[in-house]
Amino acid sequence: MNYRLWIFIAIFLFSVGLVLGIIAPAGLTNLLSEDIAALERLGAMLRPFTFSTLIVILVKNFFALLLGFIFSPILCLMPVLSLLVNGWAIAYVSSEVVGQKSLGFVLAALIPHGIFEIPAFILGQAAALSFGTLVLLAIFKKEKRSLLLPSLKQNARYLLIALVLLVPAAIMETYITPLLLV
Length: 182
Description:
182 residues, mainly alpha, 0% strand
């Protein structure tokens, strides 16, 4: 299948997550309260303008994409859930912060690194969806098996592009975004 189609599918799933984050019922938030608390603790540990924060952000984002790709053959659950949950989290947290601060604050927090990180995330998860789907098809259709290696190579290139985009995203998130939130 055409990689563009996978990008559109990834954008669609991420957008569904965004919509769900905006209309999230309070009960869903209560279900995820432990996860939200863990994220808040992680955020409190990270200090702006430090190299260790840059490394933590970069490693976390690298592993998120790599795990999505590695586990994509398991019914594509990891990339689908990752796209939905990340979209949900961005929209939900943004709507909460808009209520407490302002839309300008949210945009200043998201745009500098988001212009790199969100496309990287979409590209990486699209590659995971593409590869995972082909692996699943190859299990049931012998003629698809010969496409596995070329697909792995092509999707690994897209994944590499996504991983490279995460570097400027982490730099921006560590050194630029905090300047805009003062």
